[in-house]
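Researcher: Good morning. I'm working through a list of sequences from a screen, and I'd like to move beyond sequence-only analysis. For each chain I'm collecting a predicted structure so we can compare shapes side by side. This is the next one on the list. No need for commentary yet; just the structure.
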Amino acid sequence: MSLYENIFIARQDATAAQVEALTDAFANIIAEQGGKVTKREYWGLRSLTYRIKKNRKGHYMLLNIDAPAAAVVEMERNMRISEDVIRLLTVRVDALEEGPSAMLQSRSRDDRPRGGRDRDDRRDDRRDDRPRRERSEGFSAPEGEPA
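Model: Good morning. Structure tokens for this chain:
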């Protein structure tokens, strides 16, 4: 059997529970055809780079699949029929990743507190002790305007 990675984006109107139900349905299709879904990752509701079918956001889901090609073709056919799936991509790979995907790793990296300063801290660094610049003696307002 071949190894595949499948990512699909569900509509923003769907809840996370509905996306899980969709994923279960697709996993059942794979199982009926003699394959198995080895990993599933829910990446959450994320903003899309551009609008797809009038949606600005979508629920992202990753599936690692070990199945024959006919099972993947049937799953993709059902994904295209489903109105909740707005985009899908299936790629054949040589080996499946075991740990969390790069998307989940970057999310955990973004969640940790940053050791550094906020923008508000920069205000304290400004040099308020330096003297203010005075207007030079030779400065005069343009003609017709008060000085």
